[in-house]
Amino acid sequence: VCGEPPSRAQKGRAPHGAARGNFRRAERAERKTGGPMTGYDFDRTIYRGYSFIDFYFFCLRRRFWLALVFPFQVLFGVLTLSFTRRRLKQVFCLFLLFIPDVDREMKAFWDRAQGKIGQWYLDQHREDDIVISASPRFFLAPVCERLGIKVLIAT
User: Fold this and answer.
1) Calculated CA dihedral for residues 66, 42, 87, 89, nearest 10 degrees
2) CA dist., res. 55 & res. 38, Å (int)
3) Cβ(58)–Cβ(112) below 8 Å
4) Beta strands of the chain (E only): which ranges?
5) Dist CA 41 CA 84 (whole Å)
6) Could you tell me if 137 and 154 are in contact, meaning their C-beta atoms sit under 8 angstroms apart?
7) pLDDT digits (tens, 9 = 90+) for 36-45
8) Which comes out higher in pLDDT, residue 22 or 143?
9) Residue in 119, 133, 113 with CA at minimum distance from that of residue 55
10) Residue 146 and residue 110 in contact, taking contact as beta carbons nearer than 8 Å
Protein backbone atom coordinates (compact mmCIF):
# COMPACT_ATOMS: atom_id res chain seq x y z
CA VAL A 1 0.00 0.00 0.00
CA CYS A 2 1.43 3.36 -0.97
CA GLY A 3 0.39 5.25 2.13
CA GLU A 4 -0.99 8.72 2.52
CA PRO A 5 -1.74 10.95 -0.45
CA PRO A 6 0.64 13.87 -0.94
CA SER A 7 0.07 16.93 1.20
CA ARG A 8 -0.95 20.23 -0.34
CA ALA A 9 2.69 21.40 -0.30
CA GLN A 10 3.83 18.22 -2.09
CA LYS A 11 1.15 18.20 -4.81
CA GLY A 12 2.53 18.86 -8.23
CA ARG A 13 6.04 17.97 -7.07
CA ALA A 14 7.34 14.60 -8.04
CA PRO A 15 10.62 12.83 -8.49
CA HIS A 16 12.50 13.22 -11.76
CA GLY A 17 11.89 11.67 -15.18
CA ALA A 18 9.25 9.06 -15.89
CA ALA A 19 8.11 8.99 -12.29
CA ARG A 20 6.82 12.54 -12.77
CA GLY A 21 4.41 11.33 -15.47
CA ASN A 22 3.20 8.48 -13.25
CA PHE A 23 2.69 10.94 -10.39
CA ARG A 24 0.60 13.23 -12.58
CA ARG A 25 -1.41 10.29 -13.92
CA ALA A 26 -2.18 9.17 -10.37
CA GLU A 27 -3.10 12.73 -9.40
CA ARG A 28 -5.55 12.99 -12.32
CA ALA A 29 -7.11 9.65 -11.38
CA GLU A 30 -7.44 10.85 -7.77
CA ARG A 31 -9.29 13.97 -8.91
CA LYS A 32 -11.62 11.81 -11.04
CA THR A 33 -12.57 9.49 -8.19
CA GLY A 34 -12.84 12.28 -5.65
CA GLY A 35 -10.54 10.76 -3.07
CA PRO A 36 -7.30 9.00 -2.35
CA MET A 37 -6.62 5.77 -4.18
CA THR A 38 -4.75 2.70 -3.10
CA GLY A 39 -1.59 1.60 -4.91
CA TYR A 40 -0.24 -1.92 -4.82
CA ASP A 41 2.92 -3.56 -6.06
CA PHE A 42 1.93 -6.61 -8.08
CA ASP A 43 4.77 -9.06 -7.42
CA ARG A 44 5.09 -10.28 -3.84
CA THR A 45 2.08 -8.24 -2.78
CA ILE A 46 -0.98 -9.04 -4.87
CA TYR A 47 0.73 -12.06 -6.47
CA ARG A 48 2.59 -14.59 -4.32
CA GLY A 49 6.06 -14.57 -5.87
CA TYR A 50 7.54 -13.01 -8.98
CA SER A 51 5.10 -13.47 -11.84
CA PHE A 52 7.51 -13.05 -14.75
CA ILE A 53 10.02 -15.51 -13.25
CA ASP A 54 7.13 -17.95 -12.76
CA PHE A 55 6.18 -17.41 -16.41
CA TYR A 56 9.77 -18.18 -17.47
CA PHE A 57 9.73 -21.50 -15.59
CA PHE A 58 6.22 -22.23 -16.90
CA CYS A 59 7.59 -21.84 -20.44
CA LEU A 60 10.62 -24.00 -19.62
CA ARG A 61 8.37 -26.81 -18.39
CA ARG A 62 6.33 -26.70 -21.59
CA ARG A 63 9.32 -26.16 -23.91
CA PHE A 64 12.35 -27.63 -22.17
CA TRP A 65 14.59 -26.73 -25.11
CA LEU A 66 14.31 -23.06 -24.06
CA ALA A 67 17.02 -23.90 -21.52
CA LEU A 68 19.41 -23.83 -24.48
CA VAL A 69 18.76 -20.07 -24.78
CA PHE A 70 20.07 -19.39 -21.27
CA PRO A 71 23.82 -19.50 -22.13
CA PHE A 72 23.20 -17.03 -24.96
CA GLN A 73 21.32 -14.75 -22.57
CA VAL A 74 24.33 -14.75 -20.26
CA LEU A 75 26.79 -14.28 -23.13
CA PHE A 76 24.79 -11.40 -24.61
CA GLY A 77 24.60 -9.76 -21.18
CA VAL A 78 28.37 -10.02 -20.73
CA LEU A 79 29.13 -8.74 -24.23
CA THR A 80 27.05 -5.61 -23.78
CA LEU A 81 28.92 -4.77 -20.55
CA SER A 82 25.94 -2.68 -19.62
CA PHE A 83 24.49 -4.30 -16.56
CA THR A 84 21.82 -1.75 -15.91
CA ARG A 85 18.57 -3.16 -14.64
CA ARG A 86 16.90 -2.28 -17.93
CA ARG A 87 19.56 -4.12 -20.00
CA LEU A 88 19.33 -7.22 -17.80
CA LYS A 89 15.56 -7.32 -18.29
CA GLN A 90 15.96 -7.02 -22.05
CA VAL A 91 18.45 -9.89 -22.08
CA PHE A 92 16.22 -11.99 -19.84
CA CYS A 93 13.28 -11.49 -22.24
CA LEU A 94 15.22 -13.04 -25.15
CA PHE A 95 13.51 -16.38 -24.49
CA LEU A 96 10.25 -14.82 -25.73
CA LEU A 97 11.68 -14.75 -29.26
CA PHE A 98 11.57 -18.55 -29.31
CA ILE A 99 7.92 -18.91 -28.29
CA PRO A 100 5.70 -19.07 -31.39
CA ASP A 101 2.52 -17.65 -29.80
CA VAL A 102 3.41 -15.61 -26.73
CA ASP A 103 -0.17 -14.39 -26.21
CA ARG A 104 -1.52 -17.93 -26.05
CA GLU A 105 1.30 -18.93 -23.69
CA MET A 106 0.55 -15.98 -21.39
CA LYS A 107 -3.16 -16.86 -21.37
CA ALA A 108 -2.33 -20.45 -20.41
CA PHE A 109 0.01 -19.20 -17.69
CA TRP A 110 -2.55 -16.80 -16.18
CA ASP A 111 -5.26 -19.48 -16.32
CA ARG A 112 -3.02 -21.59 -14.12
CA ALA A 113 -1.34 -18.91 -11.99
CA GLN A 114 -4.38 -16.78 -11.17
CA GLY A 115 -4.69 -18.88 -8.02
CA LYS A 116 -1.56 -17.13 -6.72
CA ILE A 117 -3.46 -13.83 -6.56
CA GLY A 118 -4.03 -13.12 -2.87
CA GLN A 119 -7.59 -13.67 -1.71
CA TRP A 120 -7.17 -10.67 0.61
CA TYR A 121 -6.78 -8.49 -2.50
CA LEU A 122 -9.80 -9.97 -4.26
CA ASP A 123 -11.88 -9.29 -1.14
CA GLN A 124 -10.92 -5.62 -0.90
CA HIS A 125 -10.38 -4.76 -4.59
CA ARG A 126 -11.72 -1.35 -5.59
CA GLU A 127 -12.30 0.06 -9.04
CA ASP A 128 -9.77 2.87 -8.53
CA ASP A 129 -6.83 0.69 -7.39
CA ILE A 130 -3.47 1.37 -8.97
CA VAL A 131 -1.08 -1.50 -9.66
CA ILE A 132 2.61 -0.74 -10.03
CA SER A 133 5.16 -3.28 -11.18
CA ALA A 134 8.61 -3.72 -12.61
CA SER A 135 7.28 -6.61 -14.71
CA PRO A 136 6.57 -5.90 -18.40
CA ARG A 137 3.28 -4.16 -19.15
CA PHE A 138 2.37 -6.56 -22.00
CA PHE A 139 2.66 -9.42 -19.51
CA LEU A 140 0.56 -7.94 -16.69
CA ALA A 141 -2.13 -6.24 -18.81
CA PRO A 142 -4.17 -9.45 -19.38
CA VAL A 143 -4.37 -10.37 -15.68
CA CYS A 144 -5.11 -6.77 -14.67
CA GLU A 145 -7.97 -6.78 -17.16
CA ARG A 146 -9.29 -10.02 -15.67
CA LEU A 147 -9.12 -8.50 -12.17
CA GLY A 148 -10.80 -5.27 -13.22
CA ILE A 149 -7.72 -3.13 -12.57
CA LYS A 150 -7.87 -0.05 -14.77
CA VAL A 151 -4.62 1.71 -13.84
CA LEU A 152 -1.40 -0.26 -14.42
CA ILE A 153 2.01 1.37 -14.21
CA ALA A 154 4.60 -1.09 -15.48
CA THR A 155 7.80 -1.23 -17.54
Assistant:
1) 0
2) 26
3) yes
4) 39-41, 130-132, 151-153
5) 21
6) yes
7) 778 999 999 9
8) 143
9) 113
10) yes
